[in-house]
Design goal:
386 residues, alpha/beta, 13 strands, Rossmann fold, transferase, six-stranded parallel β-sheet
C-alpha cells in the first residue's frame, strides 16, 4: 500500500470499452490499494467511474480532449504509473493511425514528467513490441531509458528489450491479470459452477486488428469451414464473446455478427458483455474458448476453461507459449488448413478436462510471478510516493 497522501497519475487505455483494458485497471487498483489517491486517464470518464463503482479515491480525466488537465496533474503527482497493456509498440496499418502515434505520445508524457514535473515513472507488466522499424526501436529506447522501474509481461518483450540493450533496467514478469483469482474475476454472485448440458458451448472472440490485414478474409473463411465441419459431428453452440463492443470501427461485436452469417447452419448466440464480470461469467459457462484477445485467454486459464488461441500478433504468441498452448494455436496471419483446424478443435474438445487442468496449472505459475512482481511494485511506490 501507499501513503494516504500519495497522488498517483495512472495511465493506460481506459474508457475505450475494451474489457481487457478495464480489467487491467481493476487489477492494478486492487493490487496497489485504496490508500492513495489516483488520477486516471479515460476516453469516457463516466464509463470508467461506473466500472470502478466508487471503490477508490480517483479523479478521471479525458486526455483526448483535455491535455491541460493531464499536464496540471503531472506537475503535482508523486509518481506516474503506466499499468499493463501493449504500450511500447508500433501500430498496425489495420488500426488506421500513424505507426508511431502511441510511441510519440508516450515519449512526450515521459519526458515532460521526468524533466519538468520531476516525478518518478514506473511501467509495470507492460508489453514491448512489435517494433519492426528502426525509428520505432529508437523511440522505444528513448522512452524506457527515462523510466525508473520497468517490468514486462512476457519473455518476447524481455527478449526485445535485451536486443535494444535495455535488459539491465527491465525485469520479466507476467500479465498483471494473472494475479486475480477466479472469485475476483467472477464477482459477487458469480462463483457457482455453471450447469453443463448435452450441447458443447464454444466461446468465440474475434479482433479485426491483425498483423496481416490482407489475410482477414482467408482466416474467416477457414474458421467458418472448420466450425461448420465440427458442427457436422458434434452438437455445438457458438457463443460470441466480444471483448470490445463499441468505441472503434470493426469492433469485436461487429466482426462476430458478420462472421455468424458465414456459419448459417451452426447455432450462434450473440452476447454483449458490459463489464469484466460479465465477460468472466460468459467464459466460465463455456466448454472451450477460441480467442484472439489476450485477456479472454488469460481469464479462461484462471477460470479453468480450455482455450484455443487464434494468434494475431506477438503478444498473443507469447502468451500461448507461457501457457503451454503452442499445440492449441494457429497463426491467423498466414495460410490456414481448415480441416486440420477442425481436427485440432475436435481433439481439444475430447481432451477438455485434462486440457483445463494443464492450463490452470500453468496459470498458477504465472500468478505467482505476477504476485511477486506486485510486491516489488508496492515497495517501489512506498519509497517513491512520499
Amino acid at each position: 500500500m501507499t501513503d494516504a497522501t500519495s497522488k498517483i497519475v495512472f495511465l493506460g487505455t481506459h474508457g475505450q470499452y475494451n474489457i481487457g483494458d478495464e480489467l487491467l485497471l481493476e487489477t492494478f487498483l486492487l493490487q496497489l490499494g485504496d490508500q492513495a489517491s489516483y488520477v486516471i486517464n479515460t476516453y469516457d470518464p463516466e464509463f470508467t467511474e461506473r466500472q470502478l463503482g466508487g471503490r477508490y479515491r480517483a479523479e478521471f480525466i479525458d486526455t483526448a480532449t483535455d491535455r491541460r488537465a493531464l499536464i496540471s496533474h503531472l506537475r503535482r503527482a508523486d509518481v506516474l504509473v503506466f499499468g499493463g497493456g501493449s504500450i511500447i509498440k508500433e501500430l498496425y496499418a489495420s488500426i488506421g493511425r500513424h505507426r508511431y502515434a502511441t510511441l510519440l505520445m508516450i515519449l512526450a508524457i515521459v519526458t515532460f514528467t521526468r524533466l519538468v514535473a520531476r516525478a518518478p515513472i514506473g511501467m509495470f507488466n507492460i508489453g514491448v513490441g512489435p517494433l519492426p522499424s528502426r525509428g520505432g526501436r529508437m523511440l522505444a529506447k528513448s522512452i524506457l531509458r527515462q523510466v525508473s522501474l520497468v517490468t514486462v509481461r512476457d519473455s518476447a518483450s524481455f527478449a526485445l528489450c535485451q536486443r535494444l540493450g535495455l535488459d539491465a533496467r527491465v525485469s520479466e514478469s507476467a500479465d498483471a491479470v494473472f494475479s486475480m483469482s477466479a472469485d475476483q474475476l467472477l464477482g459477487q454472485g458469480g462463483a457457482a459452477a455453471p450447469a453443463r448440458g448435452d450441447v458443447l458451448r464454444i466461446g468465440l472472440n474475434l479482433n479485426h486488428d491483425i498483423e496481416n490485414p490482407d489475410n482477414w478474409e482467408h482466416f474467416q473463411e477457414s474458421l467458418a469451414t472448420a466450425l461448420t465441419a465440427l458442427a457436422d459431428n458434434r452438437r455445438i453452440e457458438i457463443h460470441g464473446i466480444p471483448m470490445q463492443s463499441r468505441g472503434k470501427r470493426n469492433d469485436d461485436a461487429t466482426m462476430l455478427e458478420e462472421f455468424s452469417q458465414r456459419i448459417p447452419n451452426v447455432s450462434f448466440i450473440e452476447h454483449r458483455p458490459e463489464t469484466t464480470q460479465d465477460a468472466a461469467r460468459l467464459i466460465r459457462s463455456c466448454d472451450l474458448i477460441v480467442s484472439e484477445r489476450l485477456h479472454a485467454i488469460v481469464m479462461a486459464s484462471i477460470l479453468g476453461v480450455p482455450a484455443f488461441v487464434l494468434s494475431y500478433d506477438v503478444k498473443v504468441r507469447g502468451l500461448a507459449k507461457a501457457l503451454g498452448l503452442e499445440e492449441a494455436m494457429i497463426d491467423i496471419n498466414g495460410p490456414i488448413n481448415a480441416p486440420a483446424l477442425a481436427s485440432s478443435l475436435d481433439q481439444l474438445l475430447d481432451d477438455r478436462v485434462n486440457a483445463a487442468k494443464r492450463l490452470t496449472a500453468r496459470a498458477r505459475v504465472l500468478a505467482e510471478q505476477a504476485s511477486d512482481d506486485f510486491d516489488r511494485v508496492r515497495q517501489w511506490l512506498r519509497e517513491k510516493a512520499r
